[in-house]
Design goal:
It holds the Pfam family AAA_33. With about 180 residues, this protein is an alpha/beta fold. The protein has seven helices and five strands.
C-alpha cells in the first residue's frame, strides 16, 4: 500500500474490536506511514484526566479530538498515510472532517464490528496497563457502535476473520477508496 499524497484512515470500533492490531499492521505495510494510537492522546493528560467514556468528559474529549485531528492531518500534509485507531464513533468525527476539508486530503472511516460476544471477550481479556476491561462501559460502547445511522456502510464485520484477513480486507477498502467520508 503506497500513496503519492497523504491521507488519514480512521480505524474505529469498540474496545476489543482489533483496531490497534490492525492499524499497526496496516501502517507497517504502507510507506511512508504513521500509526496514531488515539488512546495515547488521552493518556497524555496527567493531572485532571477524566475517563473519556464518562459524561463529564465532553470538554476534555473535544480538545483531545481537535489535537488528534491536527496531528493526523499534519502528517498527512507531509505525504504520510496516517492510520488512527480509536473509539471514534460518528459523534467524534467533526474535527477530523473539518481538517480533511481544510487540507483537501482524503479521510477514510472504517469501523470494525466483530460480534458483541467476540468483542467483549477480547476487551475483558486485555492485560495492557490502562486498558478498559470493565464490562459495563465496554457493553455500552458495543451498543453505541451497533448502529451508525448514515455511516452504517462504514461498518465491517470481522467476526470470522483472523488478523491477516482483516488487514487484507481493510487495505483493499482503503486502496479502492470505498470508505471515504464526504467532505
Amino acid at each position: 500500500m503506497t500513496r503519492n499524497g497523504g491521507s488519514v484512515a480512521i480505524i474505529s470500533g469498540p474496545p476489543g474490536s482489533g483496531k490497534s492490531t490492525i492499524s499497526r499492521r496496516l501502517s507497517e505495510a504502507a510507506s511512508p506511514s504513521v500509526h496514531l494510537h488515539t488512546d495515547d492522546f488521552w493518556h497524555f493528560i496527567v493531572g485532571g484526566f477524566i475517563p473519556p467514556y464518562l459524561e463529564e468528559s465532553d470538554q476534555q474529549n473535544q480538545l483531545v479530538l481537535r489535537i488528534l485531528a491536527k496531528a493526523a492531518f499534519g502528517y498527512a500534509a507531509g505525504g504520510y498515510q496516517v492510520f488512527c485507531d480509536g473509539v471514534l464513533g460518528p459523534w467524534a468525527l467533526r474535527p477530523l472532517i473539518d481538517n480533511a476539508r481544510e487540507s483537501q486530503l482524503e479521510l477514510h472511516y472504517l469501523v470494525l464490528r466483530p460480534s458483541p460476544e467476540v468483542t467483549l471477550a477480547r476487551a475483558t481479556a486485555r492485560t495492557e496497563t490502562g486498558a478498559l476491561i470493565d464490562p459495563a462501559p465496554i457493553r455500552s460502547l458495543i451498543e453505541q457502535f451497533s448502529s451508525l445511522g448514515e455511516l452504517e456502510g462504514h461498518a465491517i464485520d470481522t467476526t470470522g476473520q483472523n488478523v491477516e484477513q482483516s488487514v487484507a480486507a481493510l487495505a483493499g477498502l482503503i486502496d479502492r477508496r470505498t470508505h471515504l467520508l464526504p467532505l
